[in-house]
Amino acid sequence: MKISHMLKRENFYLINNATLTKYFSTVFQKEIRFDTISRNFQKTQLFIYPTINAIVTANPSQEVKNFLYNEFNMSHNILWKKLVLFYVALLLNTKGLLSSKSIAIIPKIEGLDSLLIYPGNRRLRFFYFDKGFVDVILKDGFPPYFFEKEIEFRKKHLNFPFILPIVKHNTIWFREPIINGISLARISNKKLREYIFSKIFLYLELLQEEFILYKKIIEYVEALLEKIYDKAKILEKKLKNFNFERDLGGFINYLVKGFKMSFDVPIVLSHGDLQEGNIIMENETSRIYIIDWETWGTRSIWYDPLILIYRLRREKTFFNNLKCYISGNTNLNIFYKLNNDKILLGNSITERQQISRIFLLEDILWQIEETENFPEGIMGFGFKFYINPNTQKRVRNIL
Fold it and tell me: Collapsing DSSP states into helix, strand and coil, what is residue 159?
């Protein structure tokens, strides 16, 4: 999520100032004040660029620039790619002139040119390219539940080859190595993408070996409904404009009433947000890492693959991608092993319709939990998407 999106959702500059102060106080035991102001080239050390999601100095190091060039090198259209890279270069080489705001640091801190501050949904990342590590801190005012979950999971599963080690941590921050690599979202080579997908499916198998439980579909749906109802009632107290029965109740009932088949649902360890941007290939070793484990949990075996393969976390293409899944239209040979058997993501349209309903209930719960773990009054974009009557109408037409 870019700063430009966070500005629409929250008081980003105020939260950012408080988080920066908390970070330097907690990690370095330094009392430093950060003030976001209009561009002032005499008083400020850092500049904010919302469209490229970066906070850097007026003279960022080449490592900082290369990272950001890589982040926005994602279009398959060569002309558009060149235009985007030109735009990023223009921002980074004009010494803060094209920034939206600047940050005054009192007292001043020396040697920040190799630092990139990269804001995220619930946290800030501090990339120290000269030192080779990233510090990650929970944004000020945000509940620590998901942050603590990630630390817990990664400490427990260090034996998995696709999980980065945590070097240092406490309840609100942790340190990890910088991966010199590229995300799957930025890779266009078809053979390389297929190789990475095959590795990810192997990693999903490792998670399945760690935990798998079969539940009758009725039992599993009832458990999902109980969690959705309980957490939605909590949200009604946090969000003034949300009413469960009005905004979600009818849609939930529609999804539940559509189950026509009786089958077992394999429940496995799930990443929860397995999008291409959370899969990184290291340049030197071609080793594949999966990052951002804050929403891990136990879900159906179909949840992570549907988010990854059919990109069902992207609102702009959600409806077309859901249609493609149900119709069985894909350019990938989608399968992964479970107990040495090949388990397809549904062998018929009817099966895929049923799986889609399970996925939608799981994803609604995911979005409710995300909004539950924002500060009071902040509603997640995905949650807004599901309570939108137009979304519900279009999903009904597809199913």
Answer: coil
d(CA 249, CA 235): 14
> What is the reported pLDDT for 330?
61
- Identify the sign of the CA torsion 106, 109, 110, 112: negative
Q: For the segment 72-116, what is each residue's pLDDT rounded down to a tens digit?
A: 876 567 788 888 889 999 999 999 999 999 999 999 999 999 999
The percent of residues above 90 in pLDDT, for the chain, comes to: 77
Residues in the chain: 399
What end-to-end distance do the CA atoms of the chain give, in Å? Answer: 29
**Integer CA distances (angstroms), 213 to 122, 216, 307, in order:** 31, 10, 21
**Phi, psi angles (nearest 5°) of residue 267:** -100, 125
CB 322 within 8 A of CB 349: no
* Residue of 87, 104, 106 lying closest to 49 (CA atoms): 87
User: How many other C-beta atoms can be found within 10 angstroms of the C-beta atom of residue 190?
Assistant: 9
Q: CB–CB of 297/271 below 8 Å?
A: no
- Residue 333, pLDDT > 50, answer no
Is the separation of the CB atoms in 118 and 127 below 8 Å?
yes
Alpha-carbon distance 279 to 142, whole Å? 25
> Hey, what are 97's tokens?
């002139």
The 10s digit of each residue's pLDDT in 2-51 is 898 899 999 999 999 999 999 999 999 999 999 998 876 777 899 999 99
Q: Which CATH number fits domain 188-398: 3.30.1890, 3.90.1200, 3.40.50, 3.40.1260?
A: 3.90.1200
Q: Which residues of the chain form CATH 3.90.1200?
A: 188-398
Residue 71 and residue 25 in contact, taking contact as beta carbons nearer than 8 Å? no
* Both structure tokens of 129: 């390219």
Helices (H), the chain: 3-9, 12-28, 62-71, 78-92, 145-156, 190-210, 217-238, 244, 250-257, 303-309, 318-327, 349-372, 381-387, 389-398
